[in-house]
Amino acid sequence: MLKYIADKEHYTEVLSRCEGVKHDLWIATADLKDLYVAKGRDSEPFLAVLNRLLCRGVEVRLLHAKEPGERFREDFDRYPGLWSKLDRRLCLRVHFKIMIFDCTTAYIGSANLTGAGMGMKSVDGRNFEAGILTDDPALVDAAADHLDGVWQSCHCGRCRHKNLCGDRPNEESKG
Prior knowledge:
By secondary structure, this protein is an alpha+beta fold. About 30% of the residues lie in helices and about 25% in strands.
């Protein structure tokens, strides 16, 4: 599969896959806000989906570039499973948007993990976004390797922003 994803398809084709993940969900985004998803006739924070995944034993990695806003933090505090089980890292230089589903499918595109980027916003309030969804092993592996390289702090030693990064690894432990 190699599918072009545009606009609302970020919600229907990409975000909707998260609930069905069985083992690993890796997410990288520059911006992170209080994203909501449909739940029956109502809606819930996307963080509720992540909390359910974590409670089922799914490994969830969340890599983002800046601290989210107050509304996101309030939602975060409502889900205790996130506090101890969510693997979250901050890197100011992250601008790519990648989601890896069970190491078999990847989204690579422009949409941040926000309501305007991926969410339930109306057609007149949603961003114009583009990306690809693929299960091509070469593309999935390349995207996963890129995300994992940042996650594993491979670039921290020579990063010009490392003094601003709250999640910078302890330099003594790198030896």
